[in-house]
Amino acid sequence: MSDRLSVLKTYKLFVGGKFPRSESGRVYEVTDSKGNWLANAPLSSRKDARDAVVAARKAFGAWSGATAYNRGQVLYRVAEMLEGRRDQFVAEVADAEGLSKAKAAAQVDAAIDRWVWYAGWTDKIAQIAGGTNPVAGPFFNVSSPEPTGVVAVVAPQESSFLGLVSVIAPVIAGGNAVVVVASEKAPLPALSLGEVLATSDVPGGVVNILSGRAAEIFPSLAAHQDVNAVDLAGAGAELAKELEVAAADNLKRVVRPQPVDWSADPGTKRLMAFLETKTVWHPTGSLGAGGSSY
Amino acid sequence: MADVTASDGALRRFLHGLPGVDPVGLEGRAAALGTRSIKTTAKAYAIDLAISMIDLTTLEGADTPGKVRALCAKALNPDPTDRGTPRTAAVCVYPDMVATAAEAVRGSDVKVASVATAFPAGRAALPVKLADTKDAVAAGAHEIDMVIDRGAFLAGHYLKVYEEIKAVKDACRREDGTAARLKVIFETGELSTYDNIRRASWLGMLAGADFIKTSTGKVAVNATPANTLLMLEAVRDFHALTGVQVGVKPAGGIRTTKDALKFLVLVNETVGEQWLTNEWFRFGASSLLNDLLMQRQKLSTGRYSGPDYVTVD
Amino acid sequence: MAFDYAPAPESRSVVDIAPSYGLFIDGEFREASDGKVFKTVSPSTEEVLSEVAQASADDVDTAVKAARKAFEKWSALPGSERAKYLFRIARIIQERSRELAVLETLDNGKPIKETRDADLPLVAAHFFYYAGWADKLEHAGFGPDPKPLGVAGQVIPWNFPLLMLAWKIAPALAAGNTVVLKPAETTPLSALFFADICRQAGLPKGVVNILTGDGSTGAALVAHDGIDKVAFTGSTAVGKQIARTVAGTDKKLTLELGGKGANIVFDDAPIDQAVEGIINGIFFNQGQVCCAGSRLLVQESVQDELLDALKRRMSTLRVGDPLDKNTDVGAINSAEQLARITELADSGVAEGAERWAPACELPENGYWFAPTLFTGVSQAHRIAREEIFGPVLSVLTFRTPGEAVAKANNSQYGLSAGIWTEKGSRMLAVADKLRAGVVWANTFNKFDPTSPFGGYKESGFGREGGRHGLEAYLDV
Question: Which GO terms describe its cellular component (chain B) (predicted)?
């Protein structure tokens, strides 16, 4: 069968649950670690980023309003779907990162397990991050975490899949919608993830995946007034500073790039980073009218 | 407003349609007004006003003509050392003591108020309550302090309570066409919730109460700043809606000048000057008077007074 | 004769204000390096209260170095020892609360009733609360061995000078940080008195440093390389500038900024309590409150009834001498703030809203603004969108709960909101949908050290108060 010409995939963006080409009509060449051509990836434009924000905002209401149980089921479904396409991702990650099959498999397995980990978090965050507060007065007072809104993410550049999953999953586990700019040189696992998400009960628009140059696209996301937070995980120091300055215009929550071992226990830092705390007060008082004193 | 009392259902719908009361907010407002600082000239004014608003009360099984006459003497001349001291608004006694009291205060502007309608429980048949009322009026009572049937109220029989108040109001009429003023006691401590107190206030006012009064003084919780504030809000709103002015009488548990001043602040800042007269605001109290007198002596002499410098009656 | 309350002034003699104050650096007061000073005045009379030092960039550097030096020992102290210092501070604040209340009223212009019954009790409570955390950090949910950040640079506003100091300093110290704090230019005195409380408590030198000064001092502080944490409470504009300043650094940032809180009144509200809540929401502290309920959203079906009640209640507000115990509304903090309030209120008239204020006589000297209500306000009006930070209420109407939520959320801010309804399910549904950090249902402007406070959107990020408030001062 070696003489059979294989069918190549046209990699597309994942925006609003659909697979558009870049509005710019441009692509860029993606190679493996040895420089061999793998595919042409869409070179997203600022307009693609804008469309992605619109899609994310549209999806945010229903996703943030879904029950935590439901969100957990959806995230678990992603893990199930990925497990079925494990070999494909192992191959893509191996190509993208120049890893052996075994090492690439370890990355993919960890990524699948990460979805499972975050699937289990959705209905526990509120109990960890919130609770009642014993205020000194006749009031019921409860704090609960709520999603920040639309989060734009620069995906890690080196860890094309585990790193990517590690920055997407915590954002949507908390009920946010995400626009992620994939690793510039290794975007294919990210674009393929879009195909998995599309068949995993993740509502369209909850995750939007762009490929291209973060330095080109992300400044408009960092400055976008309808984006509530940014995770600059994959941005270099200089770009990150520029983006953080732009993010200040509407006081986005900012997670700065830091050295991260993506294979380590992720903890709750990224999960909590995109949650607001809402505190609600309501009077309680006594059962009858006899409580008053002079 | 006639249509709201046309049937039990209409009355229920009206009373349950009144805005709810948030207890913490109400008590918070009452407490905040309780921090007003009433000093010097304002205090002197308020003390005299408070004295003039007292229904000086004795409602004991052990009451005797002698006790009642002593009470009346105190009402007429609260501080023998200062004849400029205002008289109390009224004395308040049981119906069988009305004649004695009326005799004792005759010729003065001190009124005789009588509790009636099987005070304090109100557990008697309507004809008995009406007879009780008529008896007191006939004996010379200027004012009748009736109790509502709390059992009927709590059972939701609002129209029964309404009709009973109306019947008692009728019983307050004298042959010459005049009438004793009717104070309607809710026994707020038994109604228990502020929503009930607001409903009872409107029920009483709709039925023709001249005054609405918190309590008998015979249960654990009597007048409080919060329930009085709530009743003041009710008379304010009733006046705005109907043009009819209704008085308020907190009773029971108000013992000190400081307490009384807090109630006057409630009146001042909720319904204002129009109610700052004993025509429209009363204190049902007994020991309060001596504390007011001691504070009054302090203001005029600059030194603290003591219980031996006011009369024990 | 009407029941006129006679003047009931709180005695000024409980507080002894020195003619001048230096900067509190490394445990002692010293002059500014360049000798510059500025005056602080009483907003209710324009009387000069004292002269304070204007900290220079050099002074900032000195203070940060002192804090850095102190950090080593302070962070190494057992938490239980840090706790005891904070408990001491809390107790001394309680002991000196009357003095501090009078001082705060003099320097800020807010009524003594508020400094006495709100500010000072909350200040002491805040130190008590965080004192208890100092030796329990490993139980706070931030990992088994959470570490302090280092030196915190803190810049606070003039609306609750001592309370905002407490919100900043108590959690910072409990977590093991040292601080350099800059009080607002117009209200420096209570922070300087706090320095004296630190002395009485025996707090190690350099743990708390107080730099008085203007905006340039604050800018130098947040830009200083030697700090690890910036905490700011104040305007959104300055907050954005600070966010840009710290961009690309490792400085942890928390911001508590402006607001345009919607106070939503449904037709089934407990109306008398709602009126009190509206009054408290916008006239507490002359409306100079970031979480003020400055937009009243009232259901059209009860609009007339509610506005009548509100106007009647506004007419009973007592505006005047802040030291009088019966004053409800005091002075505006500064001429500058008064000008801003005046400008925005005038824009309301110019844009066609209807202005109403009760008859009230304002004192001749000082900075005053009568409690004011605007009706006929639409979402497009500046007075419906911009933070006025004054006693000015904009009234808008709505027809359905969905419309109320949409209008409430239609703001760049997201700090506070109020809901008035007797229907529990509606209260919870609306609270759930509001994009605001603090939602007061059937109450307003309640604060507690255990209760996290902070905003969504451009109202800032991070929380102050409660367990959440520790996170801002821990390396997590």
Answer: cytoplasm
Average pLDDT, chain C: 98
* pLDDT tens by residue, C152-188: 999 999 999 999 999 999 999 999 999 999 999 999 9
CA-wise closest residue to C187 among C336, C287, C320: C336
Which of B25, B34, B194 lies closest to A289 in CB terms? B194
If you measure CA to CA, which chain C residue comes closest to B31? C117
C66, two tokens: 């002192």
Q: Which entry of B55, B79, B132, B145 is annotated as an active-site residue?
A: B145
Chain B environment of C422 (Cβ under 8 Å): 19-20, 22
> Which residues of chain B, if any, have pLDDT below 70?
none
HSE on the CB side for B233, CA within 13 Å? 28
Shortest distance, CA B51 to any CA of chain C (angstroms): 15
Tell me: do C363 and C421 sit in the same domain. yes
Asked if residue C2 lies in contact with residue B42, where contact means CB atoms within 8 angstroms, the answer is no
Are C175 and C236 contained in the same domain?
A: yes
Q: How far C15 CA lies from chain B's nearest CA (Å)?
A: 21
Domain with C404 in it: what CATH number?
3.40.309.10
- Note whether C84 and C35 are same-domain residues: yes
Cα–Cα distance between A187 and A190 in angstroms, integer? Answer: 5
Amino acid identity at C11: S
Count the domains in chain C.
2
Regarding whether C326 and C466 lie in a shared domain, the answer is no
Do C57 and C23 lie in one domain? The reply is yes
Model ipTM over 0.95: yes
Q: Based on the domain organization, do C38 and C89 belong to the same domain?
A: yes
**Residues C448, C125 contacting (CB under 8 angstroms):** yes
pLDDT in tens, A5-42: 999 999 999 999 999 999 999 999 999 989 999 999 99
Residue C454 within any structural domain of the chain? no
C230 and C324 assigned to the same domain: no
H-type helices in chain A, by residue range? 46-65, 68-84, 86-97, 101-121, 125-129, 162-173, 188-198, 214-223, 237-247, 269-273
Q: Which of residues 40-69 of A touch C (CB under 8 A)?
A: none
Helix or strand or coil: residue C153?
strand
Interface with chain A: mutation pick from B29, B190, B224, highest number of A CBs within 10 Å? B224
Cα R_g (chain C), whole angstroms: 22
Residue range(s) defining the domain that contains residue C235: 12-257+459-471
Instruction: Express each pLDDT in C268-300 by its tens digit.
Output: 999 999 999 999 999 999 999 999 999 999 999
Asked if the C-beta of A134 comes within 8 angstroms of chain C's C-beta atoms, the answer is: yes
| C191 confidence band (pLDDT: 50, 70, 90) | very high
Annotated catalytic, B249?
yes
C8 touches chain B (CB under 8 A): yes
Chain A nearest-CA residue for B230: A289
Could you count the other beta carbons within 10 Å of the beta carbon of residue B212? Answer: 28
Interface with chain A: mutation pick from C256, C425, C451, highest number of A CBs within 10 Å? C451
Tell me: the pLDDT tens digits for C304-336?
999 999 999 999 999 999 999 999 999 999 999
Q: Do A290 and B24 touch (CB under 8 A)?
A: no
B23, A283: Cβ pair inside 8 Å? yes
Q: What angle do CA C433, C438, C440 make, to 5 degrees?
A: 85
Sorted by where each starts, the structural domains of chain A and their CATH numbers stand as 27-283 (3.40.605.10)
Q: Tell me if C476 is assigned to some domain.
A: no
Same domain, C219 and C95: yes
Closest chain B residue to the Cα of C279, Cα to Cα: B29
The answer to whether A276 faces chain C, any CB pair under 8 Å, is yes
- The DSSP annotation for C104-139 comes to HHHHH---HHHIIIIIHHHHHHHHHHHHHHTT-GGG
Q: What are phi and psi of B226, to 5 degrees?
A: -70, -45
